[in-house]
Amino acid sequence: KNEVEQSPQNLTAQEGEFITINCSYSVGISALHWLQQHPGGGIVSLFMLSSGKKKHGRLIATINIQEKHSSLHITASHPRDSAVYICAVRTSGNQFYFGTGTSLTVIP
Amino acid sequence: DSGVTQTPKHLITATGQRVTLRCSPRSGDLSVYWYQQSLDQGLQFLIQYYNGEERAKGNILERFSAQQFPDLHSELNLSSLELGDSALYFCASSRDSLIGEQFFGPGTRLTVL
Fold first, then answer.
1. Number of CB pairs < 8 Å for A and B?
2. Which of A87, B1, B53, B61 has the largest count of CB atoms under 10 Å?
3. How confident is the model at residue B39 (pLDDT cuts 50, 70, 90)?
């Protein structure tokens, strides 16, 4: 069993749609990261969360520590949001585990 | 541009060889992390250094080693290379050792033939 599970694996949306990507984890964590990886391969850190909710522009990330669950929301999606979104956790023992990623395609 | 640099960008080598990947963290960042991303295994954490000291170890093979130098740049050494070592190797840096946001370098694509 993977320590981090993401869903869905693939997602296609129309431009303007509200998108949610989910992440569940099974280990004790000190922080959860949401990463974005574009087709060229580069990785950008979107959020680092240890509790509550964070917002950057059209992106919102939430975490529920009791339920071991996090969500990444994209409001008013745009074709430039097309990328792979990866959930990663840092455990209390200073290890990192990654989800397999959600491939998002936003169609104009 | 994250401010983290990695060299080389691409590396093609043969089985059994040894290579060194280099990473320069963002100015002021003391922590360096190394990750491997392969098609079959996804992203995996290899090792973390903080201000020259090893801080955490992940799925790093015994054939691999890393170090962080006094100027804070880091090198990942891969030896006795196998076909399965072909992957993207990312370096990331953060301000501190535990809770800092990480900034990723562009990666080094290693191909072992």
1. 49
2. A87
3. confident
Residues 6 or more apart from B105 whose CB is under 8 A from it? B2, B4, B5, B6, B23, B90, B91, B92, B93
- Band (pLDDT 50/70/90 cuts) for residue A1 is low
Minimal C-alpha gap between B102 and chain A (Å):
7
Query: What is the pLDDT, as a whole number, of residue A6?
Result: 96
Residues whose CB falls within 8 Å of the CB of residue A90, separated by 6 or more in sequence, listed in order: A29, A30, A31, A32, A33, A96
What pLDDT score was predicted for residue A94?
85
Task: Name the residue in chain B with its Cα closest to that of A42.
Answer: B106
Q: Do B99 and A98 make contact, defined as CB atoms within 8 angstroms?
A: no
- Strand B42-50 and strand B53-57: pairing? antiparallel
CB A12 within 8 A of CB A107: yes
A95 with B88: Cβ contact below 8 A: no
Determine the straight-line distance between the first and last CA of chain B, rounded to whole angstroms: 31
Question: A2 pLDDT exceeds 90?
Answer: no
Residues of A in contact with B90 (CB under 8 A): 43
Q: Which of A27, A36, A96 to mutate to test the interface with B (most CBs of B within 10 A)?
A: A96
Chain A residues close to B47, C-beta within 8 Å: none
